[in-house]
Amino acid sequence: MPEKQFKIPGSEIKPLAEGHGGCFATDMITVDGQKVGYMYREKPDFPEDSGWRFFSGQESEAYLEDAGHTAIYDVNTIANYDPGIIALLDAPVGSAFERRGWFGKFVAVPFEPPDEADA
Q1: With contact defined as beta carbons under 8 Å apart, do 80 and 28 qualify?
Q2: For residue 116, is it within any domain?
Q3: In a domain? residue 3
Q4: Which side of the chain, N or C, has fewer Cβ within a 10 Å radius?
Q5: What's the CA gap between 102 and 43, in Å, rounded?
Q6: Across the chain, how many H-helices and E-strands are there?
Q7: Which residues contact 14 (CB under 8 A, 6 or more apart)?
Q8: CA triplet 22, 25, 30: central angle to 5 degrees?
Q9: pLDDT tens for residues 99-113?
Q10: Are 33 and 81 a contacting pair, CB within 8 Å?
């Protein structure tokens, strides 16, 4: 498998949202450079995990089933790809937000935990 070519080189990551811990994000954000379209916060999987999960909103079920399309990042890294998430990072576990409308503002949506039975 070829090495991922990230849209923002590591040397260009700025301290925008440090101290939030780790998160999961898809390649549509970190490789393709799409904005976050959907984000939710679930119970963390490990001590350094913030619980945040970030998606462009364009991922198909088949895309998400390929673990190679998702990786663990520092939340600060994803904030560099989309600073629009920063104001929402202190939301509690069980929060979910979707980018909507002409101006692409995040709105709170009902949190629907992923179906772990399929994993």
Answers
A1: no
A2: no
A3: no
A4: N
A5: 32
A6: 3, 6
A7: 80
A8: 110
A9: 998 788 999 999 987
A10: yes
Nearest C-alpha neighbor of 31 from the set 1, 17, 48, 18: 1
Closest CA to 54 of 79, 19, 17: 79
Q: How far is CA 21 from the centre of its chain?
A: 12
Total tally of structural domains belonging to the chain: 1
Look at the pTM and tell me if it is higher than 0.85: yes
Q: In residues, how long is the chain?
A: 119
Answer yes or no: is 45 within a domain: yes
Q: In the block, which residue shows the tokens 């898809």?
A: 26
**Full residue range of the structural domain in which residue 98 is found:** 19-110
Q: How far apart are CA 62 and CA 56, in angstroms?
A: 15
pLDDT at 117 over 70: no
Facing residues of 55 across strands? Answer: 38
> How buried is 54 (Cβ within 10 angstroms: 0-12 exposed, 13-18 middle, 19+ buried)?
buried
Residue 83 backbone dihedrals phi, psi, to 5 degrees: -60, -15
Question: Is position 100 within any domain?
Answer: yes
